[in-house]
Amino acid sequence: MKLTELDTPSLLIDRDKLIRNIARAKASCAKLGVHWRPHLKTHKCLEIARLQIEDPTGPATVSTLKEAEFFASNGITDLIYAVGIAPHKLPRVDRINKSGADCKIILDSVEAADAVSRYARTAGTSFRVLIEIDCDGHRSGLKPGSPEILEVARHLKDGAALVGVLTHAGGSYSAHGDAELKAAAENEVTAITRVADDLRAAGFPIEIVSVGSTPTLCAAEKAPGVTEYRSGVGTIFDLFMHGVGVCEIGDIAESVLVSVIGRQQEKGWLITDGGWLAMSRDRGTASQAVDWGYGAVCDINGNLIPELWVASANQEHGIIARRDGKPISESDFPLDTRLRILPNHACPTAAAFDRYHIVDHGEATEVWHRINNWE
Amino acid sequence: MKLTELDTPSLLIDRDKLIRNIARAKASCAKLGVHWRPHLKTHKCLEIARLQIEDPTGPATVSTLKEAEFFASNGITDLIYAVGIAPHKLPRVDRINKSGADCKIILDSVEAADAVSRYARTAGTSFRVLIEIDCDGHRSGLKPGSPEILEVARHLKDGAALVGVLTHAGGSYSAHGDAELKAAAENEVTAITRVADDLRAAGFPIEIVSVGSTPTLCAAEKAPGVTEYRSGVGTIFDLFMHGVGVCEIGDIAESVLVSVIGRQQEKGWLITDGGWLAMSRDRGTASQAVDWGYGAVCDINGNLIPELWVASANQEHGIIARRDGKPISESDFPLDTRLRILPNHACPTAAAFDRYHIVDHGEATEVWHRINNWE
């Protein structure tokens, strides 16, 4: 199908870029001597997951239990649910595991370890658990060297089995330049391997030593002691990752196909049907060296039109302006002209759509579905 | 069902607040002597639409043709698709109308009028069309007094029938205080009635004179010559509308139920499972007098905890901090504590969910579905 036959807004994936990005992540992991446990939260799509994983069963990372249910029911059973477990979710995890999956959970407190152990004992079931480590003060997890880590390990019992440690260098998203990226990558490795060593020294077998973020996977040169990298957005890439310095504009595999629906004559803007519902409200590049507004504007063939940007957006209206403030030539963009908008952030942009249209050599050849929401 | 029995994150609607907000909009329209054509884009939900509309057939406003298809197939047939029509969408509109609906379209250029007329002639079909007017330089539409308005009217032929004029006072979202709100409401009415008068004087019958935004409906004192108001978010309300000054915190009918999943001990934060995917990336209140971060924090009963806010968010993690920077008392918020987060903007927050849980007297009594996406 020609792209002009798709209704707009529609979500596109360039297959060649997707394949290239996946190959790059696999090569990085091969160089580091680690498994790749791709984070499926960016695309939530079975076909893409299958292109990423080593084996039909995984490994893979999920961000919701709905993803876990979906991927497990499609044979991708070696999972980590990489969001600190809320005890009320344990019955749902248990059902996923009883269906044949190995959905591991993470936690970072004695309170959580006790809750998981208690539920496992009461329900006569078991969970495989990783302790979450905070390598850069970004979010959740225990600090390397914190005495609470050993305490948490000791409180995991009665079916709650400690199998590993996990960290996420979220701080790497604000790194500037190669030196800072490399430092974030090294710090992530150093932090997690120290914890793994401490736990092993205390007699706990640590099978999984899991790190990862797209910037640190791109920057890492060695990762001794690490068993796997998780990375999500690097399979797709986006303008924010371009701003971080880990991809080129030409690597961004996701775009939103929009149509010109009108003009604001006085201001010389184009109006499209790609508003913030289609692009998301993510304005991550506003804090970077180049602010891309609500997205970078490409022609239907995916070629960047550098003088334009999505300057503003309403729910179902995108406002495209010239960066220099001059009016856009009307005759260049008649009504119904299709444009492709590259997103600030691939994850929230895709979340507004239930499917991807896969683009090969300029044509939409397949439809791949996403598994959105939580219930 | 108790709210603690729901998995999180989940989207809640307080039925009493919803009913009250709907009654308020209806009373405003009754006072003004106009129809209410509620914009269904906020909730995209049949049950809520049925509480809003005057008659089983409408009137109502939609923002996507998927909404139009869904609501029309459920009997709500008097529709305006209030986004400038892209010519490639005309076959889809035509199918909706042939299924028994009266889905009106809007446009603002001779180019679009010609395209619609041409399609109607070629396909042997008809469309009912409103001309979009720009009352405040906000987005799309022709300026009142612009000679192009009459030209567009003259170019509508061969089945493309001019039935009305429409404007949206988008500028009212940045109004400060009652005087500015009232001025925006008056300006909207003055602008559209001038255009209606001009067209009637030129011999065009103008049946529908449509205005509306939540702030202007709340502020309008009279609307002579206007036949209907469209408003969307005012059925739900949100923190942004509270910042505009048109609702109280206690009027906000939508919240996201989240669970405490951990803590950042060093910084004294709570971590929840309500991240930006659940809350949306909308940070509209950042430009208002009170910045609510990613949302206002309430207890499970919906009572505001004013010292807290959602200070930051990742995809599946919400970070709750005290506004004064002091650490949050751990003992007050054990793991799995449920909190309700009020959104900056009801529309994008709801768009991440496929259903609402309706809350009556503190219990989840019904599930109402949403019609998301475009295809």
UniProtKB/TrEMBL annotation, chains A, B:
SUPFAM superfamilies the record matches: PLP-binding barrel
InterPro entries xrefs: Ala_racemase_N, D-amino_acid_metab_enzyme, D-ser_dehydrat-like_dom, D-ser_dehydrat-like_sf, PLP-binding_barrel
UniProt keyword annotations, A-Z: Lyase
GO annotation terms (biological process): D-serine catabolic process
Molecular function GO terms recorded: D-serine ammonia-lyase activity
Pfam family, one: Ala_racemase_N
Domain D-serine dehydratase-like residues, every copy: 253-360
PANTHER family in alphabetical order: D-SERINE DEHYDRATASE, ZGC:162816-RELATED
Family, per entry: Belongs to the DSD1 family.
Protein name: Alanine racemase
